[in-house]
Amino acid sequence: MTLQRWDEPKYQRITAVERQNGKLVVSFADDTTVSLATELLLPPDTHNPAWNNMSFNAYEIIVPTSAGEVEIPWTTIRLLTDKNFATHWANTAEKQAEQVGLRLRELRQRRNLSSKEVAERAGITPQSLSRIERGHHDVVFTTLQKILAAMGCTLKDLAEVQITPFSLEPLLKHLESVGLKREWVKQRILPESLLDSFEGGGDKEHLAEVARHISRIFKWPAESILNFEPLIIDSAIAQAARFKTQGRTQEIQATAYAVYAHFLSLIVLDATKHLQTLSLPTTAEEVRQAVMDRYKFLNFESLVSYIWSLGIPVIPLEDSGAFHGACWRISGRNVIVLKQITPYQSRWLFDLAHELAHVILHLSEDRPAFIEPEEINPFHDSEEEWDANDFADELLLCGRADELAEISAEKARGQVKFLKSAVLQIAAAEHVPVDLLANYVAYRLSVANHINWWGAANNLQITDPAPSDLARQVFFEHVNLDQLNPLDQDLVMRAVSQE
User: Fold this and answer.
1) Please, where are the H alpha helices in 35-125?
2) 451 FRET partner, CA 20 to 30 A, in 117, 188, 291, 384?
3) DSSP-assigned states of every residue in 45-65
């Protein structure tokens, strides 16, 4: 390592000191001499300095005062007269402050204490503690003692603690407390390049970048994320969800995902500003007739294409979890989010028809959101869900779902073993999709008779082409990703990816 000139003894050693015309002239062993005003060298509260009685040794100047002797070290003189040394000293002090901050953070996390709790005990603000832990604020000795005491630690603990390399896992674990599963965060939110930076041991800036990515979606302050402070989901989104009781954990996860889906919707609406927004049909019969007139048949691909033609984006997501879909009205435009992991076209088709019903029947300026916290099925118990199910039935099965199920049961002579054959025959005779009829029959049997007929119904499902592939294809035909910034582009691509 190359030695700087201030590392050499000659630079540090004082050889002569005298006072001339109110200034102090100091000579060093490296043959340099500096001159500076005496008032710069003493603390502001110093009284009656006796400069005529001062003395010095190789490394400091001693000045008698009314309160006792004041030592002026060589570093103070060099800092005031050598800009390069002052810069070096500041950098060194910054690194030292960073090390102290990291050690304090390590001690706090080992004791499972929040930054708010420690700050209150120490009599400082959480913001001040955050700056100290990040090395952005010099900490005086008395404050350092208060922080250590607040954690039940000593200076010895501070000196001995080993700093754990920056790891993503503690932060991800903290996010799970608000419903963000760690693998989902890695897969959907954080760029791969950022994740790669932690393979060899990330640094504090990488961790700060992680916090910024989370912050821009969920609106939590980045410092609160980094300090493991309690995080609260957007209350407006939570209220819009109208969650049913299904367990606190599922409710938290559904709410968190709703916030994420809403953020995606804002981005997609921005990327589809070129689309013309048309007047909405008012009935299921109007929708059915419009789809049949344009596409000659009604299936998942034709319905999703029709909805896009109205200027309504349909965002296909395949994440698992408690959230099951949503629709929003944002600045006069509508958007639908479908979330399914099934490969069956019929399920995607029913959910899409159901969400379209909410857009037409329920969204308004007073109710700009409708979020599905439970799996969509034909037998929901709320009035709005019945409205949406009736709309989907009218659109997909011509409003004859119950009638066709009864006819199928009669055709099977009331015997489950003949029901599959009966459903096939009735669907062909009545010109309705066999997979949709099979699903409705299975739902009805499970609810009314507690009979599990899903195995047979699943054998009648259409899976090729995959509905998720169809939805993505139509999605990318309409979305102009070039209008988005790179972060939003990446977020959208990761959201609708097949992984």
Assistant:
1) 74-81, 83-110, 115-122
2) 384
3) T-----GGG-EE-SSEEEEEE
As a whole number of angstroms, the distance between CA 151 and CA 167 comes to: 22
Length of the chain (residues) = 499
**3-state percent breakdown (helix, strand, coil) of the chain, nearest 5:** 55, 10, 35
Buried b (16+ CB within 10 A) or exposed e, 62-95: ebbeeeeebebebebbbbebbeebeeeeeeeeee
The per-residue DSSP string of 411-455 comes to HTTT-GGGHHHHHHHHHHHHT--HHHHHHHHHHHIIIII----HH
DSSP 375: -
Phi, psi of 16, rounded to the nearest 5 degrees? -155, 150
Tens of pLDDT, residue by residue over 386-445, are: 899 899 999 999 889 899 999 999 999 889 899 999 999 999 998 888 999 999 999 889
Classify residue 228 by burial, with Cβ atoms within 10 Å: 0-12, 13-18, 19+: buried
Name all domains of the chain by residue range, CATH numbers in brackets. 5-81 (3.30.2020), 98-160 (1.10.260.40), 169-226 (no CATH), 240-397 (no CATH), 401-458 (no CATH)
Give the β-pairing of 333-339 and 314-317: parallel
CA neighbours closer than 13 Å in the CB half-sphere of residue 368? 10
Return the number of other C-beta atoms located less than 10 Å from residue 117's C-beta.
16
- Span 227-242, pLDDT tens digits: 888 888 766 665 554 4
* H-assigned helices in 341-382: 345-361
Q: What is the mean pLDDT of residues 110-139?
A: 83
Q: What SS3 state is found at 310? A: coil
In this structure, are residues 426 and 441 in contact, taking their beta carbons and an 8 Å threshold?
no
